[in-house]
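[stage:ingest] chain + small molecule (pyridoxal-5'-phosphate)
[stage:ingest] validated
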Amino acid sequence: MHKIDIELVEMTMDVMKYAIDRISATNRKIGKPRKFEELKALVGDTITEKGIGGEVAFNLWKKHLMHANVPVDHPRNLAFVPASPTRAAIMFDLVTSASSIHGAYWMEGAGGIFCENEAMAWMVSLTGLPEGAFGVFTSGGTAANLSAIVTAREHWRDLHEQNKSEKGIIITSIGAHSSVKAMAKVVDVDVLLVETEDKLEAQALQQTIDSLPENQRKRLFAVVGTGGTTNAGIIDDLSGIAAICEKEQLWFHIDAAYGGGALVADSVRHLFHGIEKADSITIDPHKWLFSPYDCGAVIYKQPELAKKAHSQDGSYLDIFKDEGAQGFNPTDYQIQLTRRVRGLPLWFSLAMHGTDRYKEAVERGLELAQIAGKLIEDRPYVELVREPSLSCVLYRRIGWTPEDYTHWTYENHRKGFALVTPTKWRIGNTFETVSRFCFINPDTTEHDIAMILDSMV
Ligand SMILES: *Cc1c(COP(=O)(O)O)cnc(C)c1O
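[stage:predict] done
[stage:export] tokens:
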């Protein structure tokens, strides 16, 4: 064997061993960020003309760089929306990389895309959308929201000649995720916010629409409802909003990036009533469907509208549309051309475990939120800000200032104990700093939650 080959084999073994150790470890540490200068001082120059060698580079990773990350799947990482990819999905993420699949066109990626579509068909079935609805995996909820808004806007422009010269408007609530506003900027449409962080109700939406002057009403083309707000797990009145959108002829997009996984859970499925009327839906498997990063999804009631908006043309691309390549081309339904078959790890994990295990794992996240609610009620120094919704729990430490929350967060993080971040909850025009749990990981225990609360005494 060539020297280079032996090195490669050894490196492969090292990498595999690391991956196996990492996913089978039961007592992982919560790492913490360090300043750029500190990391640079530890590792020195890593990119050089001759290369520093795989072993050296890998050791720098293992010794220093890896520890400057906070694993999202740590059971006491309850910040933002954490994640908890299944071991099966992580292993198949390695397979996905090793298989070098171009996931844009069926011609090159048929096998991988077939698997993605099996997983997608299951996700679509959870929404209850009518026959013909389908979707694609995206890099995340942001790209999914963008793809959906572009589709809605293009469809609206196709409806009337006069719309082509208008700047569009969408309505959502202040509970909507920041990416909705950010993507509206990318698409260059205006956003009207209904002033509630609580559930967006049909009546408030109708009032907002009715209050628009004629020149704005004609620019309005879509409403974005949220299926589980990121901050508090609140699900808008999807059914009521759907009825208004139908009456007013508006596109109804539902951003269920975080909450969409809960569609699988019988205990809360009824809260999503009306989702089956949406024109498009965002769901992030990398949030509550236990996929590794990055894996979002956008689903359309009428995928052909997305295809009209997103399909790319180019002489170098014609071949992909040839007879021999007949099949589903994921690139046609979202903004990205070249893409990883990022739904493949989800497919393998679903195929291996079966959908019942997903149901149980999501139900556990919901149950943990209820357990946390009880543990909070048991302790005199903390109180719930509102009842837990989906897997989000907002609570206050009585008497604490915003600085106290920040200090507590940093202190727990510094100790490698937990990552629980503060947020703000808005009532009327006042914002209160509060503490927030978001449960995804079914391995989080009641004891973990109790320890975190006890650290607030
Ligand atoms: C997380 C989230 C997003 C953004 O998704 P990314 O995958 O981070 O791009 C959008 N909407 C909601 C409701 C979210 O929770």
